[in-house]
Amino acid sequence: MQEWFLLIYKIPAEPTRYRASIWRKLKAAGAVYLQNGVAALPADTSSERAMRGIVEEIRTVQGTAHLVRSTAVGDGTDLLAAFNAARDAEYRELLDRCQDLHTELAKERDRGNFTFAELEENEDDLARLAAWFGKISARDRFSVPLRARAEQALASCREDLERFSQSVYMAVDHGSADAIDEDGKVEENVRDSAHRA
User: What residue numbers bound the domain in which 31 lies?
Assistant: First the structure.
């Protein structure tokens, strides 16, 4: 049966940055709120380390915190469902951002904006998406179904960016973005003139 850490805490209302800090750390760990001041996280070594650190921070700011390790009464499906729903929501947002990257690359292709600056900007965006996926998947203790779709979407982004990078290199090699057709290939008349030169 799945064990959980339950953190029951109360911190001073002011300054509000204390509440925000605790909320961010619980979210980063993947915890779900059962109600105000009560958060749950599946019990494992990394969860324990995160929760103990949060308990210390709460106590440092003159708050109270109780950390309990327990199993849910009954089958615990509601708690598991809440935890998995939180991961699904994160993966859904990542899927939206992956689509945004495809849209951005398509827009730059339409403009013929095959520059190293644009390539670097999109590489940075992809790196952020990959890092974000890593954080979500580290919190995804039960491998929710959207995880596989998110992995596929990220792979598709990598492939699309690779095609875009090839278009950038070809545009640089042939001296003009106008030399690249909508599929990212060198247009025939440009290739022929390059061979004649």
Answer: 3-71
121 and 171 part of one domain: yes
Q: Residue 34: CA atoms inside 13 Å, Cβ hemisphere, count?
A: 15
Mean pLDDT throughout 154-166?
97
Q: How many structural domains does the chain have?
A: 2
Q: Tell me, what DSSP letter sits at residue 72?
A: P
Structure tokens at 60: 């440092």
Gap between the Cα atoms of 186 and 196, Å rounded: 15
Query: What per-residue confidence (pLDDT) applies to 187?
Result: 53
Does residue 128 register a pLDDT over 60? yes
Residue with tokens 């730059």, as numbered in its chain: 108
| Average pLDDT for 101-112 | 96
- CA 23, 28, 34, 39 dihedral sign is negative
Q: What are phi and psi of 37, to 5 degrees?
A: 80, 10
Decide if 78 is inside a domain.
no
The per-residue pLDDT for 183 is 55
User: What is the arithmetic mean of pLDDT over 151-159?
Assistant: 98
- Long-range contacts, 115-124 (Cβ 8 Å, 24+): 115/168, 115/171, 115/177, 116/168, 116/172, 118/168, 119/164, 119/165, 119/168, 122/161, 122/164, 123/161
89 and 67 in a single domain? The answer is no
